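Our preliminary data section would be incomplete without showing what the modeling component actually yields. Below, a chain of 291 amino acids is followed by its predicted structure, encoded as tokens that our downstream tools consume directly.
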Amino acid sequence: MRILAPVVIALLGILFCGTVPSQAASPALGEGQATARIDGQNIKVFTYRPSGCAMPSILLVFHGSGRTAESYRDAARPLADKACLTIYAPLFDRDRFPNWRYQRGGVVREGEVQPQESWTVGLVDDLIDWAQEQEGRPDADAYLFGHSAGGQFLSRVAAYDPPSEARRIIIANPSTYVWPDTEEDAPYGFDRLDDGATEEELLRAYLAAPVTVFLGTTDTGDEDLVTNEPAQRQGANRLERGLRVFETARRVAQARDLPFNWRLVTAEGIGHAGGQMMRSPEMLNALRIGN
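Predicted structure:
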């Protein structure tokens, strides 16, 4: 008896059954690009999946003010290979996400607090869910890293809508933070968001969020540094502001007997450079994977 070739068998399957049994495709290795449909809008996402890593965790990387999501993805590749991470770097383009919607989280526009359902910070939960779906693992651990403008964005995310599934929120070298203070107006504090009880609840959640303040020890320049009054109150430069916000948050939590889950990590000899921060030995400590 002649044995039918596999191709012939497959063709017969199409003729008699109409379809060929499909197998779930594994996410492609290496660099890629995808489109995430989030809250009714398309967001371009640059991806990288390492080889030799069966169950990678997810690292969402949020770019700086240059909107160079692809280069941030590229800079994260060595980290992904070392720490078994799939990189997802969403692009928040300037047209749809100007500074008030990206750096400031979409919370306040021209002095007016916006409806909470329109806040950009709310997109991050959906981005995590989407990335887990891409991985085919709804329980995949997710980490967030934002540098400079991306760090400003993640400070607002941690303050105003912290994602429950984020294992770590790494805020690296931003110009401004949400100050842990109910007297400072949003988007630099918690005042004017709602009644006092809600502001206190948000502050409690902020201090309890798994935040890592990640600072380059030589990030003391003033290039592209935000210098408005709320920013100046935070300190003279990015390093000083980061050290002060961490210490202030620690003192506030201690004084009010609130849970405090922030960490402070410094990268020695690094200035305002996102790629160097991600490639530094201290980055693994900032991630604190598994903890």
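The first strand starts at residue 30 and ends at 38. Confidence is low (pLDDT under 50) at residues 1-24. Preliminary results of this kind motivate Aim 1 of the renewal.
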